[in-house]
Amino acid sequence: MIFLMFLYPIYNNDTTTLAVVIPVCFLFSWLLFRHLTRKIRQRNRNLQKAFPEGWREILQENVRFYRELDIKKKEQFEREVYLFLFEKKITGIDTDVGDLDRLLVASSAVIPIFAFSQWEYDQLDEVLLYSNSFNQNFETAGEDRYISGMVGNGIVNGKMLLSKKDLHFGFIHPQHKKNVGIHEFVHLIDESDGSIDGVPDVLMEHQYAEPWLRLMHQEMNKIKSNRSDINPYGATSEEEFLPVAAEYFFQRPNLFRKKHPELYHMLNKIFRQDPVSIFRKKVGSLFQK
């Protein structure tokens, strides 16, 4: 209607101008459409490309979550990893970045949102990999190097900073309850609703918000009184409890469900994943053959 209102006075006054304006308007509309759909079209092109066999071998050897999936789910995991690596830059800060590093970063991003196809980390532009833990000045030498990862703000807004050594540790030693990559990406998931507050509204159905907060505070109190095996860092704030619990949930799902059944059930609702069942199905299928 607006388009017709724009053309009406031109039509009454100058048919020659109208003959020029109509093609220009259609050209503008076409260019706008191409611009708005550029990312979707690029994603579709990327999904048509074959996943490198060398990458598949790296995932199989180093990422337990991927290794335990059935064939169909592995293909889905590969697609999500592929899209992440095409769309996000990974840069080494005084350290080399190889395929293993890139795939571990991408796996950290994919694991918590695996139930949400083609999830986009819109607030993330680049992942910066440091050789080791770093201090508040982003230095990897000297004292006070206690930071393994962080979601950037201020001068590093849109960046995620990760210690390469600690990133590798979380995947090499899945028996531990820590995975800094998963931890930091859960922060980004939490932030997708506008704030990092430990309540991921984008993932969580409304009726689960109050029960989640209740469970969170109960467990934080247990941690503070040494009555919980959850990493004490999770009790420092609400915003840290969710990623700490998520690390445990994905790293040691059987133990987490045994020790914290209510929390396990709630994280199952939040992430819409049941890692215990996934792993059990894989084991069961081996015996059925």
CATH architecture of the largest domain: 3-Layer(aba) Sandwich
How many structurally independent domains? 2
Distance between the termini: 64 Å
Classified by CATH, the class of the largest domain is Alpha Beta
Strand content: 5-15%
How many distinct helices? 14
Structural class: alpha/beta
Ranges where pLDDT stays below 50 over 5 or more residues in a row are 1-8, 283-289
Our Rg estimate from Cα atoms comes to: 24 Å
Helix content: 55-70%
Report on the architecture of this protein.
The chain has 14 helices and four strands. 59% of the residues lie in helices and 6% in strands. The protein has helices at residues 2-13, 15-36, 38-47, 53-62, 64-67, 71-87, 99-110, 164-172, 180-191, 209-224, 238-251, 253-259, 261-271, 275-288, and strands at residues 89-93, 126-130, 149-151, 159-163. Strand 1, helix 7 and strand 2 form a beta-alpha-beta unit. Helix 1 (2-13) runs antiparallel to helix 2 (15-36), helix 7 packs across helix 9 and helix 9 crosses helix 11. It is an alpha/beta fold and 289 residues long. The N and C termini lie far apart (64 Å).
